[in-house]
Amino acid sequence: MDIVGNVLPQVLKDEATEDKGEMARLQSFVGAIAVADLVKTTLGPKGMDKILKPTGPGQEMTHITVTNDGATILKSMYVENPAAKILIEISKTQDEEVGDGTTTVAVLAGELLREGEKLIQKRIHPQHVIAGWRIARDVALKRLRDISTENDINSQEFHDDLVKIARTTLSSKLITSDRNYFADLCVKAVLRLKGSSNLDYIQIIKLPGGTIRDSYLDDGFILKKQITIGCKRRIENAKILVANTAMDYDKIKIYGTKVKVNSMDKVAEIEAAEKEKMKHKVDKILKYQPTVFVNRQLIYNYPEQLLADSGITVIEHADFEGMERVAAATGAEILSTFDAPERSQQVLGHCDLIEEIMIGEEKMIKFTGCKKNEACTIVLRGASTHILDEVDRSIHDALCVLITTVKNKRVVWGGGNSEMQMAAACEEEAKKVQGKQAFAIEAFARALRQIPTIICDNGGYDSAELIQNFKVELQKGNNTCGLNMTDGTIGNMSELGVKECLRVKEQALMAASEAAELIMRVDNIVKCAPRKRERA
Ligand code: ADP
Ligand code: MG
């Protein structure tokens, strides 16, 4: 038997012996909580910023990022721990799905796990915890939906809601003092979309220089390119052909092929043939009768000359995104062959005016009165690229949330109101549930309540007192109360105008509880009895 005693514990290879159940569980909890704690201090309107600095050889001079955005911070983190990775993943998903609430989701998942850990220490089996959490999540979700309100999409109230939501989203970011200005700007941009959710129509151009307040919304589309020399600088009633085709072989450019010639004349002959081919292509393009020709690729002098001579304005080397946007905004099709001039009506884009403009010190091309009138451009100005990048991220968040709100229409009060209400619902439920699951439901409520607690803490306020007062106010039936982060009191959210989109909260709740459950359960599988390593 001695032999068995010696051999059995060595079933796994040496490297694998570290993987004890207890350790694995602890590791995933610690990892997830550590990640949540890292972004915790950025939560809320008084949250702090983080500097992200790339490391490694040759990276010393690279661009650093200053940000308050949970998803941006988490995305750039390099982690080993699998549970930490799950948290980063849900934050990313939140960013892609709804654009905001990226910190909330990670923090909530972390707090859930912190509570879960305590329950496990009290010898409550993870399955009971999960069962309780599921009940709690459903109850919370129901309450969340019950307290949300909806206004008619064309009403002034809805418009006001949008401005308030934009303001709340922007309030934790770098541009706090300018948030009213940018909230209006974002709402105007989103309302132009008329319900479409294509963010491509809203283009953001960042130009260092000036101050943040010099940023503006330009109706129309701006392409960061220049009109080729020798062409008209102002075209009214433009018919635009957008192409992605090679226009750069009027000179010999044959790779991987050997051409042997005896004299220079022969070279000239080949060149002439190439030129002829080019001319043929240009002729085909001319059949479409455009007045403006936009190409993704380079255009060499010869075809450029041919086009310019026919009175066509040429824009070459438009980058792909820019070109796709031109096509979307003007209603053009992107062509690469030109064999169907009879379809010219369908494939040509249209806009009222194309002109060259100056923004700051840069020349750009502006398309006004596009066929698809939704397109517009937000021009961001600011002292440094760091500021511009953060403003860009914040505006992107706001735009996403606004688009989601236009789709979903339902809104809830911010400032911790929804979390406190959900927590209250869970606590009421816990009183009705028999068995150990009730502990888990209570734990869920505590985790939810951590969100407003952390927002308070980040503002330097006494969270214990504020949260208690908050509870009492809600108990009294004051359904619009919430954190007043300017005075450090419990205020009225409808007076302060702090609103949030229901979808953001829903998504955060679902994703956080799912992730917490996942980490909890994975642990349950791993949790086989720790192997004893002592030698008999
Ligand atoms: P996230 O990345 O999760 O969106 P934020 O840092 O944007 O994190 O913080 C969002 C939280 O801050 C929300 O719970 C919101 O209700 C709260 N909040 C935002 N603005 C205010 C405000 N002016 N007063 C009180 N709470 C606010
Ligand atoms: Mg936010």
Short description:
With 536 residues, the protein is of the alpha/beta class.
Mean pLDDT: 82
- Estimated helix fraction: 40-55%
| Strand content range | 15-25%
Question: Quick one: biggest sheet?
Answer: 7 strands, mixed
What are the segments in which pLDDT stays under 50 over at least 5 consecutive residues?
Answer: 1-5, 524-530
Subunit arrangement of the protein = single chain
> With helices defined by DSSP (H or I, 4 residues minimum), what is the helix count?
18
Give me the secondary-structure category: alpha/beta
What gap, in angstroms, lies between the N and C termini? 10 Å
Number of DSSP E strands: 17
What does this entry look like structurally?
- The protein has 18 helices and 17 strands.
- The chain has helices at 2-7, 21-40, 70-75, 82-97, 102-121, 126-147, 156-170, 179-192, 264-287, 301-309, 320-330, 344-347, 385-408, 417-432, 437-458, 463-475, 493-496, 502-526, and strands at residues 50-52, 65-67, 149-150, 202-208, 216-219, 221-223, 234-243, 292-295, 313-315, 334-335, 349-359, 362-370, 376-382, 410-413, 481-484, 489-492, 499-501.
- Strands 6, 7, 8, 9, 10, 11 and 12 form a 7-stranded mixed β-sheet that branches. Strands 3-14-17 form a 3-stranded antiparallel β-sheet.
- It is elongated, with a radius of gyration of 30 Å.
- The termini are close together.
- The structure holds adenosine-5'-diphosphate (ADP) and magnesium ion.
- The site of adenosine-5'-diphosphate (ADP) has 23 residues, from α5 and α15.
